[in-house]
C-alpha cells in the first residue's frame, strides 16, 4: 500500500487516493462518512477478536486452576498499559504513511502470542498474554489518526467507539461459542483470533484508502501534525490544571468500565443472570446503539466551545445514570440485563465523550499544536494504570462471591466523584476564556 493510500505523503490536503468507484465514493461527503465509519468500526471490532474472547473462559481446570483467570487478565492488562505509555510518544509522533503497516504487524504479533498460549499454557501463559496486550494497546491510536480533525469526527468516532462496546460483547460470545464446540480453553483465544483475520484485512485496506482532511476540515478543526516532545510539554503546561480534573474522572471511568468488561461473566452471575452465550452481545449492542445516537449528534454542533462543554456535561450525566443504576438494582428495580445496559451506558457515555468530543474540540477551539493520539494515550495510560492498581491492591476482593458487592460500592463513590470532577473541569476552562493562547472561542 502506497504512502498516499495510507494518508501519508500529503495527509492534510483532502486528496482522494486511487480511482474508480472508490474514488468517486470518497469524494462525496456522505460516501466518505459511511466509508470512515465502516472502516474504523470494522478494524477495531476485529481487533477485539484477538483481545477479549479469552475472558469468556473460567480457566479453572487443568492446566490452569483457581485464580488463574485473574492472573491472565492482569498479564494482558500490564501489557496493554505498557503499550499506552509507549503510545504517548509513538502514536503522537507516528507519520500517517506508517500506520497501516504498523497496525498489521501488531495484529500478527497478537495472534502469535495466542498460538504460543495454546501450545504451552502453563509455561508461557502469562508472558503470552502480556505480549498480546502489548501488541494490541496501540491499535486504537493508529485507527484514530485517520478520523481526527474533521467536521464529522464525532460521527466517525461514535462508530469507532461503538465498535469496542459492541465487539466487547460479541467477542466474549464468540469465545463461549467456540468453547461450546469442544475447543479447549487454552486454544479458544487463538481460534477466535483466526476467525477475525479475513475481515480485519478487508477493513484495514478500507482504512488505508481514507483521504486526508479537506480544507474546510482544517479551517474548522485545525491541522493535526505529529508532535515533538516540546509540543507535548507546551500543550500540558497551557491546559494542565483543567486536564487534571478530566483525567482524574477518566481514570475512575476506565477502572469501572474495564472491571465490568473483564469480569462480565462473574458480575452477571452475581446479579442472578442466566448462562445464555449471547448475553454479552445483547447488553453491549443496546449500549452501543444508544451511544451512537448521543455522541453522533455532537458532530452537528459547529460551535467548538459549545460542543466541548456539551461533552463535559454529557460525561457528568452519564456517570449519574450509572449511579442511579447502582442505587436502583438492590431494591429490585432492574433486571440483570437492565442493570448491565443502564450501568454500561452510564460508564461508556463519559468514556466515549472524552474520546470523541472533549479532546477533539479542545484542540479545535484553542488551535494549539496537538493531536488526539497524544491526549488519548495520556488518558488511557493513567486509566489502565488505575485498573492495575485496583487489581493489585484489591485482588482478593475479585473472587466471584465478593466481586459484585465491592464493585457496587466502588461504582457509587467513583461515579459521584467523577461527575463532580467533570463539572469542575468545565468551570476551569470557562474561566480561561480571556487567557492568551487558551481562548475558548468559536471557530473562525
Shape: globular
**Which structural class do you get from the secondary structure elements?**
mainly alpha
Total beta strand runs: 0
Tell me the name of the CATH homologous superfamily. MFS general substrate transporter like domains
CATH topology: Growth Hormone, Chain: A
Task: Explain this structure.
The protein is an all-alpha fold. The protein has a single domain, classed as MFS general substrate transporter like domains (Growth Hormone, Chain: A, Up-down Bundle). It contains 16 helices and no strands.
Topology:
Layout: H1 20-26, H2 29-51, H3 68-93, H4 99-119, H5 121-136, H6 139-144, H7 153-180, H8 188-208, H9 215-221, H10 229-262, H11 264-271, H12 279-296, H13 304-328, H14 336-366, H15 372-393, H16 400-431
Helix pairs in contact: 2-7, 2-8, 3-5, 3-15, 4-5, 4-8, 7-8, 7-12, 7-14, 10-14, 10-15, 10-16, 11-16, 12-14, 13-14, 13-16
Produce a short descriptive summary:
The chain has 444 residues and is mostly helical. The protein contains 16 helices and no strands. The chain has one domain: Up-down Bundle (Growth Hormone, Chain: A), CATH 1.20.1250.
Amino acid at each position: 500500500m502506497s504512502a498516499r493510500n495510507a494518508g501519508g505523503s500529503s495527509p492534510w490536503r483532502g486528496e482522494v487516493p486511487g480511482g474508480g468507484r472508490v474514488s468517486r465514493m470518497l469524494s462525496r461527503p456522505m460516501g466518505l462518512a459511511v466509508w470512515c465509519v465502516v472502516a474504523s468500526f470494522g478494524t477495531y471490532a476485529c481487533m477485539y477478536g484477538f483481545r477479549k474472547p479469552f475472558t469468556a473462559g473460567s480457566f479453572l481446570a487443568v492446566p490452569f486452576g483457581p485464580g488463574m483467570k485473574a492472573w491472565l487478565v492482569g498479564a494482558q492488562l500490564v501489557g496493554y498499559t505498557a503499550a499506552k505509555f509507549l503510545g504517548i510518544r509513538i502514536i503522537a509522533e507516528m507519520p500517517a504513511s506508517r500506520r497501516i503497516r504498523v497496525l498489521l504487524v501488531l495484529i500478527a504479533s497478537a495472534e502469535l502470542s495466542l498460538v504460543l498460549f495454546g501450545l504451552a499454557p502453563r509455561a508461557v501463559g502469562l508472558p503470552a498474554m502480556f505480549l498480546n496486550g502489548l501488541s494490541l494497546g496501540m491499535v486504537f491510536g493508529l485507527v484514530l489518526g485517520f478520523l481526527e480533525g474533521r467536521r464529522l469526527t464525532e460521527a466517525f468516532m461514535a462508530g469507532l467507539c461503538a465498535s469496542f462496546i459492541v465487539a466487547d460483547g460479541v467477542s466474549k460470545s464468540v469465545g463461549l461459542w467456540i468453547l461450546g464446540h469442544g475447543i479447549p480453553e487454552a486454544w479458544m483465544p487463538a481460534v477466535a483470533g483466526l476467525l477475525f483475520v479475513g475481515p480485519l484485512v478487508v477493513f484495514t485496506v478500507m482504512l488505508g484508502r481514507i483521504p486526508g482532511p479537506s480544507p474546510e476540515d482544517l479551517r474548522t478543526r485545525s491541522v493535526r501534525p505529529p508532535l515533538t516532545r516540546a509540543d507535548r510539554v507546551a500543550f500540558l503546561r497551557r491546559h494542565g490544571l483543567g486536564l487534571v480534573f478530566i483525567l482524574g474522572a477518566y481514570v475512575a471511568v476506565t477502572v469501572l468500565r474495564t472491571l465490568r468488561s473483564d469480569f462480565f461473566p462473574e458480575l452477571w452471575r452475581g446479579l442472578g443472570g442466566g448462562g445464555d452465550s449471547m448475553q454479552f452481545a445483547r447488553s453491549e449492542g443496546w449500549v452501543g446503539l444508544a451511544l451512537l445516537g448521543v455522541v453522533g449528534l455532537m458532530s452537528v454542533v459547529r460551535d467548538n466551545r459549545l460542543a466541548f462543554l456539551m461533552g463535559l456535561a454529557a460525561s457528568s450525566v452519564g456517570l449519574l445514570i450509572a449511579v442511579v443504576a447502582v442505587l436502583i438494582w438492590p431494591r429490585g428495580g432492574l433486571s440483570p440485563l437492565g442493570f448491565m445496559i443502564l450501568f454500561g451506558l452510564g460508564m461508556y457515555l463519559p468514556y466515549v465523550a472524552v474520546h470523541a468530543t472533549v479532546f477533539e474540540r479542545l484542540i479545535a477551539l484553542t488551535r494549539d499544536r496537538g493531536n488526539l493520539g497524544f491526549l488519548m494515550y495520556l488518558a488511557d495510560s493513567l486509566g489502565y494504570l488505575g485498573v492495575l492498581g485496583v487489581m493489585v491492591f484489591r485482588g482478593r476482593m475479585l473472587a466471584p462471591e465478593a466481586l459484585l458487592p465491592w464493585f457496587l460500592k466502588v461504582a457509587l463513590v467513583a461515579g459521584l466523584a467523577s461527575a463532580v470532577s467533570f463539572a469542575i473541569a468545565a468551570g476551569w476552562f470557562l474561566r480561561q476564556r480571556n487567557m492568551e493562547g487558551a481562548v475558548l472561542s468559536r471557530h473562525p
